[in-house]
Amino acid sequence: MNESAYIKALESTSRLSEPAIRNAIKSLTLPTGSRVLDVPCGTGTQMQWMLEAHPKIKITGFDIAQDHIKYSKEKLTKSGKIHSCKFITGDMKKFEFDNNTFDLVWCCDGLWPGSKEMGCPSEEPYSILKDMVRITKPGGKIAILFWTSQKLLPGYPFLEATLNATKSSIMAANPHISPQLHFMRAPAWLLKAGLENIQTQTFAADINTPLNDLEKVGLHFLFDMFWGRSENEVSKETWKKYKDITNPGSEEYILNQCGYAGLLTYTMFIGIVPN
């Protein structure tokens, strides 16, 4: 996928996850003047949501992709919020910020442990988290969020369960990875990095008809991301049914069915930097 198509995919999936992420952002306590780091900032969408919920903060967007930084600058300029923003291109494995710089480090879907070939920033999360602690003020917070579940094929529970049981469907999966590195063990990561008062909260986003074109693009991106490589792990009948219900030209096309409803969840893990 080229960079332009990837940015479009990020924008379309952000539309689907928006209610969950916005509610996570609203749950944060950010006093006036708080300095926030969004890493990786992607297309700048969550920076915009952060400033809409907490307009009296200053936020820095940090991403390894220059195209993402450029796109984010354009988006925040159009929104009229660019005066509260700063942007830096860099690698999250090495933050070149001074100690005690930020009141909050926000990291959504950016700390999946795994190999570089899988697009993960590091084999383990601890070194990155410890550097996040270094650049966060005493009493400040680190919030890491992960996409944790989804229901996207209503009416086909056995089909969806079969597809979800394939190795190809498990996001950032590695059969040899330690159980301690599964994303739902993130509270232990935060404790190991030296954080205190760990909190966990899950937020849901409902997906309902009528769906606009951007939402349909996002759903097709998710269909492909989760199940697009599962053909060799399921029966021919299962694969044919999956292809039929996700084909816009099919009479069984699921996104044209009356009353389509789906959901996804994000889980946020927060720790406090000790004073």
Description of the structure:
By secondary structure, the chain is of the alpha/beta class. It has helices at residues 3-26, 45-53, 66-78, 126-135, 157-164, 186-192, 213-227, 236-245, and strands at residues 35-38, 58-63, 85-89, 102-108, 136-151, 196-208, 261-272. A 7-stranded mixed sheet has the order 3-2-1-4-5-7-6. The protein starts with a helix and ends with a strand. The model has no long low-confidence stretch (mean pLDDT 93).
For CATH, the homologous superfamily of the domain at 3-150 and 176-206 and 263-272 is named as Vaccinia Virus protein VP39
Helical coverage, percent range: 25-40%
**Total DSSP helices:** 8
Average residue pLDDT: 93
CATH level-1 class of the domain at 3-150 and 176-206 and 263-272: Alpha Beta
Q: What fold name goes in the CATH topology slot of the domain at 3-150 and 176-206 and 263-272?
A: Rossmann fold
